[in-house]
Amino acid sequence: MAECIVVTSGKGGVGKTTTSANLGVGLALAGHRVVVVDADIGLRNLDVILGLENRIVYDLVQVIEGECRLKQALIRDKRVEGLYLLPAAQTRDKNAVGPDDMRRLVAEMKETFDYVIIDCPAGIEQGFKNSIAGADRAIIVTTPEVSAIRDADRIIGMVEAHDLPEPDLIINRYRAGMVQRGDMMNQEDILEILAIPLIGLVPDHEDVIISANRGRPAVFDDDSVIGQAYRRITDRVVGHDVAFPDFNQKSGVWATMKRWMGLSPMQEAV
Amino acid sequence: MRGFFAKIQNTVFGSEVHSKDDAKQRLKVLLIHDQVALTPAQLDAMKLEIMEVIGKYVEFEADHVEFKLSREDGSISLVSNVPVRRVTARA
User: Fold this and answer.
1) Those residues with Cβ within 8 angstroms of residue B8's Cβ, 6 or more apart along the chain or in another chain
2) How many angstroms separate the CA atoms of A114 and A28, rounded?
3) What share of chain B in percent tops pLDDT 70?
4) CB contacts, 8 Å: B10 with chain A
5) How many domains does chain B have?
6) How does pLDDT run across A93-148, given as a tens digit for each residue?
7) I need a labelling partner for A224 at 20 to 30 A (CA). Which of A22, A65, A82, A213 fits?
């Protein structure tokens, strides 16, 4: 049965779009038919993260306003079988679309696809309401910071108020070294506060920037720690029980010495 | 100098307050106030009214009364600790 998952956070800049892109690609790599929807009308970005920005003809608003058919607006990602993008409009604003429009659109997409992934804009206004309107479940992205967790808590309350099931949590930009020093909340600290199930832990890593530069989500790359983290997330999203690797283990004496002497960068593997 | 020794002591015995503990503590208070739409003045007023009622029945140490909102698993409770000196009224 088809499922619509909204990726949301409240706060901007915590990694919703990166998460949506990697989850979409990950699901497609696992053999599912997937459409990723950029619901950030006026500030589209998912196309860039996916490297599909040059192929946009029509957008979500044009589909809703009947200027084109859904099929015409969908962009097929040639790198993986079964992955499509529905881009946001860049020259319109969030009020061009309403929750009922989104519900209808999602219902139509669910006829063709196994997964509809909605990349929600930041904030709690119209864009958020549109994004969760057609969703069956939500994934909340946060970072280990006071402001991001505060907003996540607010969003969790709003998701539950919309009769969606308890959302799952992804903790992004996790830095094992800072956690070990006691300068960053660990996952237990965050889960104690937010009290929803953890579905992903993504380290803070330069691969995120590099993959954004190239327009090629890290999940394509087997060797990337970010890619591996998103593969595990993908597996958990489809219902597999995948263990969280122990990233908080102390590093060896030699590695610590080298780090002190500045010979090797801090490894942050999650 | 005392600060220096305190720092050494903290480092050696691991009693230093880490910044993540500050973050967690601040968040807990923040989330309660995000959820409970009461101003500090309203909370004080409630505390006074409740103390007034308790005072009708028991004698207590007003200076040591604690009232705090706490949050566990997403739900909020009002926790109060009232040290009783003796019961003044009888049923």
Assistant:
1) none
2) 10
3) 76
4) none
5) 1
6) 878 899 999 999 999 999 999 999 999 999 999 999 999 999 999 999 999 999 99
7) A82
Task: List CB contacts (< 8 A) between B28 and chain A.
Answer: 193
Taking one residue from A and the other from B, the number of pairs with CB-CB distance under 8 angstroms is 39
Contact A185 B23 (CB under 8 A): yes
- Quick check: A28 pLDDT over 90? yes
Q: What are A239's two structure tokens?
A: 């219902």
Residue A4 and residue A135 in contact, taking contact as beta carbons nearer than 8 Å:
yes
Name chain A contacts of B19, Cβ cutoff 8 Å.
182-183
ipTM rounded to 2 decimals: 0.78
Per the listing, tokens 């029980």 go with A241
From the candidates A155, A191, A192, which should be mutated to test the interface with B, based on the most B CB atoms within 10 A? A192
Average pLDDT over residues A233-238: 98
Amino acid identity, residue A219?
Answer: V
At residue A270, does pLDDT exceed 60?
no
Show the CA angle centred on residue A123, arms to residues A122 and A128, nearest 5°: 85
Q: Are A81 and A28 in contact (CB under 8 A)?
A: yes
Residue B14 pLDDT > 90: no
Does B87 contact A at CB distance below 8 Å?
Answer: no
State the DSSP H helix or E strand holding residue A85, giving kind and residue range, or none if neither. strand A83-86
B84-87/B58-60 β-pairing: antiparallel
